[in-house]
């Protein structure tokens, strides 16, 4: 395609591999890990597509990743960013169906924080025209994770616990839970978010710095008997919550927002109460879930965004060229996602 | 039956419920928790039997229990002790088949550290005549646990890790593992036990105070890829072992010999490596395993004791009347089980 440039602007990683640290997703200065770069335009191989970026979302997993604290190694000089949406402007063999389409994507070939991105065709979801770029750019990682995790919760009963409930993912899980007739119990950091969470679908909302939290949670746990704890924080308070849950409770960690290493104070509960501690990772879920089930989940996710049941709150639109200097500041706003634009 | 006395000697608990402490199974002075008592002879109800004790074994779970640190509450004034063997001298309705038989038992109605014990008929296993009282008195708790847990290990691959491997249960699991063609990796506290463990069936033996343990275990883990860790200790070293195990490893805690509360230093492994932490409790296993499978396991256990493949090492025979004064001292010998005799 002759209208494509030979090079592109990208925000690239300045480190290889893992850092060995575990400091959580907070960043003070993105230039510790990221740098601007002008790179040759990547070329789609067989089964791949080249996407011109419309918008990339910033997820906590992106921050873990650039800091070298994620489950996959960094590649120095490669663009950062896992998720976005854009237009397919070139295709490799076997990806003809996506030609010219606007798609949501997870970046598998090169990072999303770049003017152009190469990824596998099966990591793309064509977007309905009634879905905005903002919703399209946050279509996969959070919504699919929410769907899959609430499904786990539902398999064990009707009540479940969600930490960091004001995150985009937390809000999705609360509203999805209510829609499915379940009872989400939300943990939040700030008292001023309680009403909004209830409005959104949480059956109960607890503030993590409330000194009475343990007693309050114990009472709720006794009544509602939540069996699944969908936890993005994974700190000592998480362990306390888990310890107060009933027989056969499952602590499902899907994130590590806290750098604290939780102590297991009630090991005997694993033995005598049949409790267990495990993790959730969307990539693993996608690898182990039949395509038909995934397609069903994708269609359901998209329908929810299209009819307005779900939407992505955006705090800031941050131009690609300002990411290195401005990302840390942009992330201080906690009322929505940072969206990167070309 | 007219030859039965009206009262019996028993070692009874002096506390109710749970202690709230978590100090492990060590005891300095049994009189903190136990006292001698003369009690009315218990009477077997429907489905129960009255057993004249031949021998009761002392398991770590007994010590956790009397200290109020086990998963079940104590009853003040009731005899302590979970397991033993003896002769059925009276029966309730429905238990006729056991009349006059020598049986191994788990005490469900009253404790085993008494001249007479009442328990459910289904908690009794008639003993073959070629099995000694010593083997009979330690027939259920450890051997059944070993069988059930090695079965879990086998379901995940051929190598598995066993902590506290010089315990009776640890030794059973190592020998059973070898018999089944598996590769037990044993953790022991004392270097002088290494050869004996290898002899018994361990494929690899590591000493827990060896400063090179982490590197040695990492190398073994890389080669043998153990997926299951059968752990009686549940301390920080256990967590380190678990962290060095491969993808999809399961940390199965069945005891808490250490009072240390392990920190989870690698929470991300639960997420990205599909690892999980869980418990094992024989009672739960017996409740959730079909009777036919349990009978098969019982027969296999008994065959192993009868033909000498398994045996119970005994360190001390301790008369019932000396338990309160002498138990702490008797437990200092680590070369076998303490057996209580009437």
From TrEMBL, chains A, B:
Annotated SUPFAM superfamilies: GroES-like (SSF50129), NAD(P)-binding Rossmann-fold domains (SSF51735)
Q: Which Gene3D superfamilies does its entry note?
A: Medium-chain alcohol dehydrogenases, catalytic domain (3.90.180.10), NAD(P)-binding Rossmann-like Domain (3.40.50.720)
The record's annotation in Pfam families points to: ADH_N, ADH_zinc_N
For this protein, the record's SMART domains field holds: PKS_ER
List keywords of the entry alphabetically: NADP, Oxidoreductase
Please report the stretch or stretches of sequence annotated as the Enoyl reductase (ER) domain.
Answer: 26-340
Query: Is Cell membrane a UniProt keyword of this protein?
Result: no
Quote the InterPro entries the UniProt record gives: ADH-like_C (IPR013149), ADH-like_N (IPR013154), ER (IPR020843), GroES-like_sf (IPR011032), NAD(P)-bd_dom_sf (IPR036291)
Recorded protein name is Zinc-binding dehydrogenase
């Amino acid at each position: 395609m002759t209208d494509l440039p030979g090079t592109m602007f990208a925000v690239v990683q300045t480190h290889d591999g893992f850092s060995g640290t575990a400091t959580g997703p907070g960043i003070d200065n993105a230039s510790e890990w990221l740098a601007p770069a002008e790179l040759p335009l990547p070329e789609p191989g067989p089964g791949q597509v080249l996407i011109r970026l419309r918008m990339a979302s910033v997820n906590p997993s992106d921050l873990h990743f650039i800091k070298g604290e994620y489950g996959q190694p960094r590649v120095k000089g490669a663009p950062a960013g896992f998720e976005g949406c854009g237009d397919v402007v070139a295709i490799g063999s076997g990806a003809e169906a996506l030609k010219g389409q606007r798609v949501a994507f997870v970046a598998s070939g090169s990072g999303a924080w770049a003017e152009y991105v190469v990824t596998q065709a099966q990591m793309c979801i064509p977007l309905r025209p009634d879905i905005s770029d903002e919703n399209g750019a946050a279509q996969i990682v959070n919504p699919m994770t929410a769907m899959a995790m609430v499904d786990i919760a539902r398999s064990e009963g009707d009540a479940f616990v969600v930490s960091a409930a004001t995150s985009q993912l937390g809000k999705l899980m609360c509203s999805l839970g209510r829609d499915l007739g379940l009872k989400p119990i939300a943990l939040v950091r700030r008292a001023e978010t309680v009403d909004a969470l209830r409005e959104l679908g949480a059956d109960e909302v607890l503030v993590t710095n409330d000194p009475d939290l343990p007693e309050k949670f114990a009472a709720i746990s006794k009544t509602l008997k939540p069996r699944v704890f969908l936890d993005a924080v994974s700190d000592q308070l998480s362990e306390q919550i888990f310890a107060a849950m009933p027989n056969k409770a499952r602590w499902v960690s899907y994130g590590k927002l806290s750098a604290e290493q939780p102590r297991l104070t009630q090991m005997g509960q694993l033995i005598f109460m049949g409790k267990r501690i495990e993790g959730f990772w969307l990539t693993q879920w996608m690898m182990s879930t039949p395509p038909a089930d995934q397609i069903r989940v994708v269609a359901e996710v998209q329908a929810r965004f299209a009819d307005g049941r779900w939407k992505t709150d955006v705090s800031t639109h941050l131009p690609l060229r300002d990411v290195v200097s401005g990302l840390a500041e942009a992330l201080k706003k906690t009322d929505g996602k940072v969206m990167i634009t070309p």
